[in-house]
Amino acid sequence: MFEPVLLKNVDMPDGHLLSTYEAGGGYKALAKVLTDYTPDEVVELVKQSNLRGRGGAGFPTGMKWSFVPKGADKPKYLCCNADEGEPGTFKDRIIMERDPHQLIEGLAVSAYAIGAETAYVYVRGEYVAAIRRLEQAIVEAHEKGYLGRSILGSDFNFTVHIHCGAGAYICGEETAMLESLEGKRAQPRLKPPFPAVAGLYASPTVINNVETLACVPHIVTRGAAWFRGIGPDKSPGPKLYCVSGQVRKPGLYELPMGIPLKELVENHAGGPLPGRRIKAVIPGGVSAPVIPEPGLEVGMDFDSLAAAGSMLGSAGVIVVDDSTCMVKVATRIIEFFHHESCGKCTPCREGLNWVVKVLRRIEAGEGEPGDLEQLEMLCKGIFGNTFCALGDGAAMGLRAALKHFRDEFVTHIEERRCPFH
Amino acid sequence: MTMREEIEQAAARYPDQRSAIMPALLIAQKEHGHLPGPVLEEVADILGVERIWVYELATFYTLFHTEPVGMFHLQLCDNVSCMLCGSDNLLGHLEDVLGIKKDGTTTDGLFTLSTVECLGACEMAPVMQVGDDYHGDLDIARVDALLDRLRATVRQATGPDLTAAGTPGE
User: Taking the complete model, does pTM exceed 0.90, yes or no?
Assistant: First the structure.
């Protein structure tokens, strides 16, 4: 029987308070590492757990930490990417609003591991409730000596600051987030240098997602073997799945990594709305290529979804039923990417503008023969040719819609109308 | 705390003043409602940073408003999850009952209507943010009730509407 750990406090009325967190064993992981572990041993433990980043890329967390140079003369920074902007994703908001100490303990343990004394949590500006809860939690943690100087009598000093975003999806890209933290427009940086070597203020920096950091105290408390024992060996652990769209029970579900998408949608989230049939599911936020209904047996983990031509991404699972026009869905997705393009590179900035125009005219019944070939040509011009993954995500999403639902696009063009209206 | 003190306190969190521009703009916008040129210049002066650095952030990030917005900024999410749950209908309804189009402001200055990208609350789609607050699981009846509540907060804040009662100055 799977026991949820990440969400164990979120339904408690006082789940956000330090007293609730402590009563559930909170901050014991921090005490344990400060007494029993060297920083390198914490990095090793997280490597052993096979924890992979929950923000979307799935990079091994322990390995990312190990890239931070030892004994650098500059301060090291830990940044938490809480700019949750991938459409369909709301897991980090719920952790921050309802169990903020879980994140703070994760930050403290991780900062100890990489040798950082300062963390910035970059929270999207819309998340006002989450920001207030985090602010209160930081004050509480300082009062109890979990943050500040000489934490729990050790020689570890650590402070957490909140940096409030101001509405830019691109800040989820880690180097754009660093630019934003430095007070600049959020445009991705050329890599290398990678942030672990030269990140915030050109200092060694680790950037981790909220859910990734929230996993860390549990790995310390329960052990790397416990974590690795949940789900597939190469991408293990408990996982938060955000289910939304045309489904009976939308919500946040904590289940093992790798559970079949069909089981998540049908059993846990209640299946389709009455009288409807599921047509497709976007498994990992709108950057993740759509999976048509026959493919829903796929396991929800990084490797299985990649093998199926999609990706786990942020695990924002969006359910689309048979009443919905896929051309409209694809148009809305590309409009989003076009709106959020930072404007730095031409294929993304101009290419997506062009794609939006073609998609809008197809949806409006004004599509022309050759439009689908033009869309494919544009995807080819964008994919792999942009500065960051934003353009790639848009192109991958559109290609999947064109591949799996080509008949809907063709009908729009041939009948010169949207068949769903 | 004055706006200057609040900005200076925020700036102390960073080793570089430039990092404080975003928090400073949020503080200034809370104070002034929006960010016209003179406010941007004041922020630059308080932080001692280049004015162009402030202008470029105020125009890059969507949460900063260089033009005035209504007292209640209705920000309806129309991204995929909300669209699948009927945000199009809500937008049409809001345009009808407020008598404005998307991106417009009512003549009494109470409401500005915008659509926004995903608010990260898809479990309660369709969602609308008004000020600091999220309102989820919306349908037409709930939107109407919300508009009534918002109007009522204004009436409470300004006292009874004496003009409507026809007894000004009483």
Answer: yes
